[in-house]
User: Fold this.
Amino acid sequence: MGAAHVVGAAVIDGSGRDPSNLDVTIENGRITQLGASSAHGERLDAEGLTMTPGLIDAHVHLGLSSPIQPHFSFQISAAEIAADIFATAGAALDAGFTTVRDTGGIDGGVVTAIAKGKVKGPRVLSCGPVQCQIGGHGYYGAAWEPTELWSSHHIAGLCALSMMAGNADELRHNVREAFRRGASFLKLCVTGGVVGAHDRLTDTQFTVEEIAVAVQEAAARNTYVTVHAHNNEGIRNAVEAGVRCVEHGTGLDESTAALMAAHEVALVPTFAVVEQLLHDTAGAGLAESTRDRAKGAREQMTKALAVAKRAGIRIGLGSDLIGPAQGRRGKELSLRAALETPMEALVAATRTNAEILGLSGQVGVITPGAQADLVLWNGNPLEDPELFSDPTNAVLVIQAGHIVKDLR
Assistant:
C-alpha cells in the first residue's frame, strides 16, 4: 500500500490519552501525519470504528502450537508441527497482534519465514530455546529419557523448546548457541512452573552466578535476559544477577517488588494461560494433573499485579497460551481490563510492551515516525474490553503499512 489516509476512526494512540477523532496518514510503511491531510493517496473509510496501535503480546509460544505431550513424544510429524506453528502465527495477526515476543519454542527459521512474507504472521522477536537447568522447568522428556537425548526433540530451523545446562560453562555454551541460531534476547527458567514435568513452583533453579553468565553474554550483544519465575527467591536471584524482565511473577511480595523497581526490572504477568489450564487442560495436550498446579495461581497473580503496581514496576502484558487453542489471544487484555482499567490494559499491550521489547517509539504507538501497525475495532474496546477477546472484532489490521486483514 502506498500513501493512504485512514479517516473517521476514534483514535486511541497507546499513550493513555483519551480517544480523539484524527485522520492517520501512512506512507512507506510508517505513520507520517495525524490530522487532515491534503496529500494524495488511498482513502480508507473507518467511520464508526475505533483505532488502536497494533497489539503486542510479550509472552507467546508459537512453537508449542501442537498438543504438548504428543509433540514431545514423537507422535506428530514435523510437517504437522510446522502447520500448527504457522496457523497460530496467522491467527495472532488476525486477532490484531502485529508484534509478538516468543519466549521459547521456535528456532530462527520461523522468524525468517514470517519476516520474508512466506507465511502470514506478526513481527517476531525470539529467544530461541529456553535456557534450563538439568531436570528443571522446560524439560518434558520421559522420566527414563537421558538428558543428552533431549536435543533430539529439536527440529532445526523450526522448533527447539529448551536447552539443558548442568553448570555455568554449559550455560555459556548454550546461550552462545542460541544466539548463533537467531535469538535476539535470552530467557532462563529460574523457578519451577505450572506446566512442569519434573519440578515444583517452589523450586529455585540456577544460581546467581549462573544467571549472571547469561546476563554477561546478552550484554555483549547489546540485549537482555528475561526469566520465567514464580517464587520470590528465584526472582531475587535473577534481579541480583542483572536480568531486565520477569515473566509471571506469581508470588511477588512487596520487598521483592521494591527490589525489582529499584533495579528497573519489568514484569510480564500472564493471566490467559491460567484460565486456559483451569478450563481446558486437555485441549492444550496436557495431563489433568496440570490443573491442580494452576489452582490458586490466578489469585496469587492478581495479588502480585497489585503489589507490582504499588511498587511502580513497569508492567507489560503476555498471554503465554500453549497448545492448539491460541485463537483468542486478546483475552489477556480482557482479563487485565477487569483487574485494572481497559485503558491500562491497552497501554500495557502497546506502549509498555514496546518499551520492554526495546522497540519504544517504533511500534505500540500511533505517532508520526512509528511503524504503521494499526487495528480498527468494531466498537470501542475501552467501553467493552471483551471486544479484544474475539478476533472477528478486529475488522481491519494494518502491519507496516500493509493491509493484512479487512472485514469491513
